[in-house]
Write a structure and sequence with these properties.
This protein has four helices and seven strands; from the N terminus they run H-E-E-E-E-H-H-E-E-E-H. The strands form two sheets. The protein has a four-stranded antiparallel β-sheet with strand order 1-2-3-4. The chain has a three-stranded antiparallel β-sheet with strand order 5-6-7, with no helix packed on it. The mean pLDDT is about 90. The protein has two domains: about 90 residues, no CATH class; about 70 residues, no CATH class. Helix 3 runs antiparallel to helix 4. With about 170 residues, it is an alpha+beta fold. The chain is elongated, with a radius of gyration of 23 Å. Helix content is about 30%, strand content about 35%. Bound molecules: zinc ion (ZN). Zinc ion (ZN) binds next to loops.
């Protein structure tokens, strides 16, 4: 799913979506193609009409997305303004307010997670949450465990675990 964030990351602003086309490859990994035509400002504040072709690949070891500009045309301020009137801007001030709020919540969750993460009782390094193979019970495991360096562990209180999960959910947003 291509989002507003994907365009903001590329440096586009004032996004006005004009047309959207989606298709999925029927065979193999079912990669998804999305073609958007939109009016927007580029990094230098020049109003453009662009057609962007996104490809999202889904693989067992993770996904990947890439994009290429299929066409790009500089338009006048007047044409841009009339498209805004017709279709509206997606990344308007309300969007940015909500985004700033989300970022603040994420920062707070990150800080709280660091605060709640104990140090390894054996080597003093950081710890991560893992689940026991036998019954999926969560516990803190030393970050050095997977490298075979340290087998330090600590238990996690049930009440802490639900709180940690909630914080992780917030921290992984955006
Ligand atoms: Zn350790």
């Amino acid at each position: 799913m291509i989002s507003i964030e994907d365009y903001l990351r590329l440096g586009y602003r004032g996004l006005v979506f004009l047309h959207r086309e989606e298709s999925e490859e029927k065979s193999g990994y079912q990669d998804e193609h999305t073609i958007h035509t939109l009016a927007c400002y580029d990094k230098d504040g020049i109003p453009l009409k662009i057609t962007m072709h996104w490809l999202e690949c889904f693989r067992p070891n993770g996904g990947k997305r890439s994009c290429r500009i299929e066409s790009k045309e500089i338009i006048g301020q007047g044409e841009y303004a009339s498209l805004v009137k017709l279709y509206g801007v997606k990344d308007d001030s309300l969007y940015h307010q909500a985004r700033a709020k989300k970022e603040k919540r994420k920062r707070e969750a990150d800080a709280k997670l660091i605060e709640m993460t104990p140090k390894c009782p054996i080597c003093g390094n950081g710890m991560i949450i893992k689940h026991r193979n036998s019954d999926q019970k969560p516990f803190w495991s030393c970050v050095g465990f997977s490298k075979g360096k340290c087998r330090g562990s600590r238990s996690i209180l049930k009440s802490d675990y639900s709180k940690l999960n909630r914080l992780l959910q917030i921290a992984n947003q955006l």
